[in-house]
Design goal:
With 125 residues, this protein is of the alpha+beta class. The chain has helices at 25-36, 86-98, 109-119, and strands at 42-43, 48-52, 58-62, 66-68, 73-77, 104-107. A hairpin with a 5-residue loop joins strand 2 (48-52) and strand 3 (58-62). It is globular and about 50 Å long.
């Protein structure tokens, strides 16, 4: 997996312990938006186990991209075509079933397009 280096070395609202290393440009763009508005955020701080085999080994897990501690909300970002996000939607459904107390939201490409248009941001691909 190619990791994207942050363009801004010091995010002001980032509350993680290590500098974030984003998996793709869309995540960097979302981080910039959160930071610009002073919304406290962390990058991939929690992995939720979704399935284990008979011996207790993890066979499926989900690590949402962002956590907003002030809202107690996890965000997963995707700029994949709508038809290709089935896997992420399935994981989010499993997360909600197994961890009903966890609040999570999936941001789709169309959500990013709306933000990009509203705030005149370049669209990450």
């Amino acid at each position: 997996m190619i990791r994207v280096q942050p363009e801004t070395p010091d995010f002001q609202a980032y509350c993680g312990s290590k500098p974030p290393r984003f998996a793709n440009p869309a995540e960097l763009e979302y981080a910039k938006i959160l930071d610009w508005y002073g919304i406290s955020w962390d990058y991939e701080p929690t992995t939720f186990v979704l399935a284990r085999d008979e011996e207790g080994r993890v066979t499926e897990a989900f690590t949402p991209d962002f956590y907003l501690p002030d809202q107690d909300l996890y965000l997963e970002v995707t700029v994949m075509k709508q038809s290709l996000v089935t896997r992420k939607n399935r994981k989010l459904r499993k997360l909600r079933e197994q961890y009903p107390e966890v609040r999570a939201k999936l941001f789709y490409e169309r959500d990013f397009e709306r933000l990009a248009a509203r705030y005149r941001l370049p669209k990450a691909s």
